[in-house]
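Re: [ENG-882] Designed sequences occasionally contain unexpected residues at chain ends

Forwarding the minimal case from QA. Structure tokens:
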């Protein structure tokens, strides 16, 4: 159903320069995608950490003044838990092994990307107390001529959703946190429905509930209400542990088509699709029973965190979706899909939501 780019992976850690001296780019992943000035642009998540020393584990934390502080622990410390490549658990505190920022790259052909020159800022860093552990996984939605960036804000206070807006990619208006912890995977619909804006988001239940997809509405894209849980995990299936929205839903004659990610309890991430009602997107019309796209190539199965395909960005032209995705939490890849083919597959499983 999906055709991978022959050139995959199209971006690796070797293609991106570190943002600060002494840091190493560990991962390049999960780009937001948009068209601007007749080019294809990716807003990459770049994850970095210091050069590691023998017997030690070190990682950076951003201070509120924008400077980086490096924390360092002995790997043999009995209070240190390094069982997850993405996290460091020390006593009662959890840190990230890397710190992420957003990086702009562009392309004339949608395959070969580079950082633009000529004065445009290409790096967007976390700011303030709610982004000291970095900013991640940005979705880009074009609404009324304005690019809206929804992204994950990470700090010791938790994980929430931030919003920035720009018209020209030179100046950004930061709106702060629009959905408080614990929340992420926020994707904006690119037009109003019944006079209101809508978004998909993923709050996480700690004891009750779970990692489900919710929908909410707003008059101004900042203040959100009317929350509904529309997509839950499915026991025993490929998306049994967590689900989360991808890029902006695609408007089709059949409904709003959303490509979402799902994971099982072995942390294997695949992609599926869900179809929402055009007039009332709180209603689920159909959902993938089998994965639409799953880790199969070596670069998707082996890496910083293997067996992962994750998308939060695409471009749509007619029936074709050009999807950019992160693989194994380490590299950027591309694939094309047919909207008609996706919808045909959903019809088969439309009674299985």
């Amino acid at each position: 159903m999906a055709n991978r780019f022959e050139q995959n992976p199209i971006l690796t850690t070797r293609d991106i320069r570190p943002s600060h001296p002494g840091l190493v780019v560990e991962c390049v992943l999960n780009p937001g995608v948009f068209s601007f000035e007749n080019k294809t642009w990716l807003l990459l998540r770049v994850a970095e950490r210091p050069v590691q020393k023998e017997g030690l584990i070190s990682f950076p934390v951003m201070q509120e003044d924008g400077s980086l502080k490096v924390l360092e622990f002995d790997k043999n410390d009995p209070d240190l838990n390094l069982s997850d490549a993405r996290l460091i658990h020390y006593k009662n505190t959890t840190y990230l092994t890397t710190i992420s920022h957003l990086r702009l790259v562009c392309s004339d052909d949608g395959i070969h990307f580079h950082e633009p020159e000529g004065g445009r800022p290409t790096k967007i860093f976390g700011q303030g107390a709610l982004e000291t552990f970095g900013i991640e996984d940005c979705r880009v939605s074009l609404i009324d001529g304005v690019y809206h960036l929804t992204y994950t804000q990470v700090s010791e206070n938790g994980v929430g959703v931030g919003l920035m807006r720009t018209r020209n990619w030179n100046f950004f208006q930061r709106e702060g946190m629009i959905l408080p912890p614990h929340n992420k995977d926020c994707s904006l619909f690119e037009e109003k429905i019944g006079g209101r804006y809508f978004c998909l988001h993923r709050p996480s239940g700690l004891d009750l509930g779970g990692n489900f997809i919710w929908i909410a509405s707003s008059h101004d894209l900042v203040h959100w209400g009317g929350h509904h849980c529309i997509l839950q995990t499915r026991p025993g299936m490929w998306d049994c542990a967590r689900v989360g929205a991808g890029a902006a839903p695609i408007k089709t004659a059949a409904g709003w088509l959303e490509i979402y990610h799902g994971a099982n309890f072995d942390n294997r991430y695949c992609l599926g699709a869900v179809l929402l009602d055009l007039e009332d997107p709180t209603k689920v019309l159909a959902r993938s029973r089998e994965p639409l796209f799953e880790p199969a190539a070596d670069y998707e199965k082996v890496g910083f965190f293997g067996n992962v395909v994750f998308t939060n960005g695409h471009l749509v032209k007619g029936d074709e979706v050009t999807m950019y995705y992160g693989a194994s939490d380490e590299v950027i890849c591309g694939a094309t899909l047919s909207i008609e083919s996706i919808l045909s597959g959903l019809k088969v499983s439309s009674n299985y939501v």
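QA comment: On inspection the terminal residues look reasonable. The longest strand covers residues 23-36. Proposing we downgrade this to a documentation issue.
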